[in-house]
Amino acid sequence: MAEAADAAETLEVLHEVSSILHTGLDKESLRVLIGLCESGVNPEALALVKMVFVTVGTTLFDELIRAADQDDVLQRLWQLGYRRVLMQTGKGAYQPAEGDRRCGMHVSCYRFKPTLAEDMARADLIISHAGAGSIMEALTLAKPLVVVVNDALMGNHQSELARAMAERCHALAATPPRLARALSADALAALRPYPPPPRADAFLLVLNEEVARDG
Amino acid sequence: MVVLGSGGHTTEMLKLLQGAPTDVYAPLHYVIAATDHTSADRIPHADAAPGSAATVVHTVPRSREVGQGWASTCATTAVAMLRCAWLVACVRPDVLIVNGPGTCVPICACVFALKVVAIRPRAKLVFVESFCRVETLSLTGWLLYPLADRFLVHWPELAAKYPRAEYVGRFF
Question: Where do the TM regions start and end (chain A) (predicted)?
Fold first, then answer.
């Protein structure tokens, strides 16, 4: 009895430490990790587990989650060295089966969080819907990025940004049915970071011109 | 005067204006839609110095909420137009900066009208197309293309297609 209380207290303290360090781990994940370490797993090996973050943002995009949940995509990710997939599923109806899967991947998901910044920062690969906000966030973090365009939307201008980034080798572009094919080691290796603009105040310069002309 | 939209438009606009010297652009008027509860909290300096007029926030009704019927849309559009006209007449901005939310169209029309009737002949209308637009203009962009004094785009592809559109380098 006292042992269980001790364990709970230890977990409590570790969770506090872990939130101070912004690890983004919830109590359940921590408990599993501690269990693994206690049974002799090297903690450094755990830290090396590569994670894929799949996000639909605030959009309704079941096709992306469904595609990412297919065995061919999970297998491809396993071949590329990833072992964990975390999916942010938003308001979609499709929910992947969580836990360890046949293809060796661990899948977990949630619908919304106030901010996705932590999961973005922890990810080793981001598979995102084609919203400008998510694309920019992933590129600013210099993460390998696969942008999945919702090809079911009519007159979807989002494909423009995805294509522009793909042409410049800052991201891979795909559609849900072509996601597995887009995930190739060569294509991912060819990605180049998106550099910050040469002048952060380029817009303000234009504005200054207009204000000066006015004065 | 700056028109903020919602969500992505607001994010882009605040990024564009990041580091803007508040003393040069004072007073800076922000316009937000009345039902937009998130943009107001994201405006910098909005509550920094109470009593100072460096940053002013105005709200205008939206002409159409998502999912609103067409009959009532006519009525709400008329109300929104009048409120925008009143706001523009009161503030008489020297420079109007917009990046494409639907809310900005009536305000642009009013500022343009002030220019035409020579009340504010030197007022400048600066339009920035959305970062998402690489090859085609948005509906708002298309509407404001002939009216804007500076029509800025994020991608050289757009500037090549539309002669009045300017690509002055990357903003983001």
Answer: none
Question: H or E segment at A83?
Answer: strand A82-88
pLDDT in tens, B86-133: 999 999 999 999 998 878 888 999 999 999 998 888 899 999 999 999
Residues B28-52: tens digit of each pLDDT: 899 988 877 788 888 876 655 555 5
Segment 123-162 of chain A within 8 Å of chain B by CB: 131-133, 136, 157-158, 160-161
Please give the pLDDT value at position B105.
87
Query: Residue B94 and residue A214: Cβ atoms within 8 Å?
Result: yes
- Does A37 reach chain B within 8 Å, measured CB to CB? no
CA distance B13 to chain A (A): 10
pLDDT digit string, tens, across residues A5-47: 888 898 899 889 888 887 767 788 888 888 888 888 888 887 7
Going from the C-alpha of A109 to that of each of A87, A94, A103, A112, B171, the distances in angstroms are 4, 11, 17, 10, 34
Distances (CA, A) of A54 to A88, A128, A146, A204, B141: 6, 6, 9, 35, 32
Q: Which domain holds residue A201?
A: 50-214
Q: Express each pLDDT in B72-86 by its tens digit.
A: 888 888 888 899 999
Helix, strand, or coil here: B104?
helix
| d(C-alpha B108, C-alpha B91), whole Å | 13
My answer on whether A143 and A179 are in the same domain is: yes
Are A76 and A151 part of one and the same domain? yes
- The arithmetic mean of pLDDT across residues A46-64, rounded, is 91
**What number is the ipTM of this complex?**
0.85
- A-chain CB neighbours of B171 within 8 Å are 197, 202-203
Cross-chain CB nearest to A210 (options B126, B155, B169): B126
**Number of domains making up chain A:** 2
Topology of B2-167 in CATH? Rossmann fold (3.40.50)
């975390």: which residue's tokens? A86
Q: Taking CB atoms and an 8 Å cutoff, what residues of chain A touch B133?
A: 157, 160
Query: Is residue A145 domain-shared with residue A162, that is, in the same domain?
Result: yes
In this predicted structure, what is the pLDDT of residue A90? Answer: 93
- Same domain? For A32 and A110 the reply is no
CA distance A155 to chain B (A): 11
Q: What gap in Å lies between CA A36 and CA A44, rounded to an integer? A: 12
